[in-house]
Amino acid sequence: MLANLWWILFGLGTAVFLAVMAGLIFALFRQRREMRSERETEPRARTVVLWGGLIIPAAILVAAFAFNLSALRATALPVNSQDLVIEIIGRRWWWEVHYPGSQFRTANEIYIPVGQPVQLQLASEEVIHSFWVPQLHGKMDAIPGRVNTFWIQADEAGQFLGECAEFCGVQHANMRLLVVALPPEEFAAWLENQSQPAPAPADEITQRGQEVFLSAGCINCHTIRGTQATGELGPDLTHLASRFTLASATVANNRGHLGGWIADPHSIKPGNLMPPTALSGEELQALLAYLESLE
Ligand code: CUA
Questions:
Q1: pLDDT confidence of 27, banded at 50, 70, 90?
Q2: pTM surpassing 0.85?
């Protein structure tokens, strides 16, 4: 719809430009011919000014306005958009995502069902960010102290990369996100899984990893539902292993990146709020095994 509007306005602008240029060339050539008397040309000049200066421009502007109105109506909030609401909060420098209907919190990866309008309620913690997934919608600012509501809809399943589009500090460029559109039944399964508490450690090494997690300071900032970890400064890690990426879509979610991130987050994302965690090799391996079990 927005693309159509763009092409229509581009076409109108081009037509007007060509018409004006044609008139200019016509006038330049005419000058060379013999000038007729003023009495003879005045009525014709008046007609040209009336049509070319008033009636045709007015008609073009009214038509452009009408196209604009129809685009505005198409992008307005759908009336029955209450089926799925997602709250998104811009943090430093990641996106906190709430599914109020299901009472859980996740980060940076926003799952939506295909073919349905989804209402997004956008807020920010401390500075202005701009939420932008170019394939799905126009930019929308996330402003501290207010909630901006808009909607998106994905007509095909797939992943759509988004960016923060308002400079917000040193890691602005690494404040990315993914919108993951799934067929409705797969989306429902995802929602059901995310609503569950974290799976309990199933073997010795993940058990040891959970001990490390609970004792190494991680719990000051992170939540893993089903454990004593209820920190809210950083992303909720309850289903960390189900995510494709780490650090706001900065790097892929795999063991190497996760280990590097825990040992020295600033090597991947300088300036972010997570401190390095000093662990022995054994502790780190156990912690990684535990975090990787959080499907
Ligand atoms: Cu957040 Cu730029």
A1: confident
A2: no
User: Can you tell me which atom of ligand 1 is nearest the CA of 127?
Assistant: 1
Read off the tokens for 242: 């189900």
Distance from the alpha carbon of residue 133 to the mean position of ligand 1, in angstroms: 13
How far, in Å, CA of 17 to CA of 68, rounded? 20
Closest residue by Cα to atom 1, ligand 1, is 129
- Taking the CA of residue 93 as reference, the ligand 1 atom at the shortest distance is 1
Nearest atom, ligand 1, residue 165 CA: 2
Atom of ligand 1 nearest to the CA of 171: 2
Q: What is the whole-number distance in angstroms between the Cα of residue 91 and the centre of ligand 1?
A: 9
Digit-coded pLDDT (tens) for 212-253: 999 998 999 999 999 999 999 999 999 999 999 999 998 999
Pocket-forming residues, ligand 1, beta carbon under 6 Å: 90, 93, 129, 164, 166-168, 172, 175
